[in-house]
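Below is a filled-in request sheet from our internal design queue. Each sheet records the structural input a requester submitted and the sequence that came back. We keep these sheets so that new team members can see what a complete request looks like end to end.

REQUESTER: design group, bay 2
PRIORITY: normal
MODE: inverse folding
CHAIN LENGTH: 368
BACKBONE (tokenized):
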């Protein structure tokens, strides 16, 4: 259940046992994902707690803004608790179906939230963690931040609104991030627009102290922006992706994943050769089906509204446990841990365009 909250800043003792901690201090609602041993991976119960608390604070005039963070020093949130979804499917339960419907509803609610949301993205921000933060007004990264949509590595596709926010990154950078699943750090997160403030992690305590003392003058969003401007910066030099941008824009605009890998293998220019070879090797380790569906999904998402992007992801979800590579990916990487997933199809060359297209059948009629 959701922690009962006192507006004076004390939270109930029950909250200390919760996977989500909720507290109000100085008119700011603080929500903390509290599973540090599990890198704050979110469960269905946590999704429900977060949504209930946000709904309650939306109607509470004494709460002016919300801060999202993760407990511990390693992660804001390393994604959804995928093991529980695997178990649900294997046991013939429906938790995995409920999870995506409710998780997407929570993410959408954050995008449309009536009060400013400040997300402190310290440590890992992966998958479902990205879904929680990309709708926030103020997204703060630190030197410890590692952002990614790594789903293709376990035979899945970048959901939680990824079909909306990834293709809206300039050029083909978001396509690259979604199809490859690579992690980026703070400078690249700012460069891509996946974060908008940088703060050294050792200043997070000072930020908290300043939030507790903040005098509310203007609109809450402007007050928070003014505070961040005193402590944080909005750009960092030497974003690695800025140098790779011309190559990424070329390769990831190619028609399909086999073409991308084939042309990456042909790069001989010295300063791009190592990146191209490493990227090709990485793509060949991922699920061919997941990458192909991801590429199509992101290209469609570029032209869809936020709501329709979530609808498209749900359309794919409803087929993916039966027809996709997720169950095999989880088995190989999390259950048996043999790290040898038997993807279906096993290679990019074996991909069938009609099979990829079949995942999108019916969406144009029902998804908009």
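RETURNED SEQUENCE:
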């Amino acid at each position: 259940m959701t922690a009962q909250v006192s507006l004076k800043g004390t939270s109930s003792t029950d909250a200390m046992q919760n996977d989500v901690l909720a507290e109000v201090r100085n008119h700011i609602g603080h929500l903390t994902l509290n599973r540090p041993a599990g890198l704050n991976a979110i469960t269905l119960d946590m999704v429900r707690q977060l949504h209930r608390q946000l709904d309650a604070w939306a109607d509470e005039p004494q709460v002016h803004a919300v801060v999202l963070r993760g407990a511990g020093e390693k992660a804001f949130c390393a994604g959804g608790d995928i093991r529980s979804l695997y178990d649900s499917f294997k046991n013939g339960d429906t938790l995995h179906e409920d999870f995506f419907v409710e998780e997407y509803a929570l993410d959408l609610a954050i995008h449309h939230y009536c009060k400013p949301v400040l997300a402190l993205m310290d440590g890992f921000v992966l998958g479902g963690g990205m879904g929680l933060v990309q709708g926030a007004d103020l997204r703060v990264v630190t030197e410890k931040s590692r952002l990614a949509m790594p789903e293709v590595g376990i035979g899945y596709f970048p959901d939680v609104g990824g079909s909306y926010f990834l293709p809206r990154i300039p050029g083909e950078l978001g396509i690259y991030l979604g199809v490859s699943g690579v992690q980026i750090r703070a400078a690249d997160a700012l460069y891509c627009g996946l974060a908008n403030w940088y703060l050294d992690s050792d200043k997070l305590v000072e930020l908290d102290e300043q939030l507790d003392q903040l005098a509310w003058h203007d609109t809450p969003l402007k007050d928070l922006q003014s505070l961040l401007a005193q402590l944080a910066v909005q750009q960092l030099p030497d974003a690695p992706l800025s140098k790779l941008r011309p190559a990424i824009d070329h390769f990831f605009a190619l028609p399909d994943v086999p073409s991308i890998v084939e042309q990456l293998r042909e790069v001989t220019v010295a300063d791009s050769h190592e990146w191209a070879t490493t990227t090709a090797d990485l793509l060949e380790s991922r699920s061919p089906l997941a990458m192909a569906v991801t590429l199509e999904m992101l290209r469609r998402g570029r032209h869809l509204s936020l709501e329709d992007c979530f609808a498209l992801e749900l359309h794919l979800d409803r087929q993916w446990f039966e027809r996709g590579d997720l169950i095999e990916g989880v088995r190989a990487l999390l259950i048996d841990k043999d790290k040898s997933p038997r993807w279906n199809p096993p290679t990019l060359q074996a991909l069938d365009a009609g099979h990829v297209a079949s995942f999108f059948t019916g969406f144009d009629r029902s998804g908009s």
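SHEET NOTES:
- The mean pLDDT is 93.
- The longest strand covers residues 20-25.
FILED BY: M.R.
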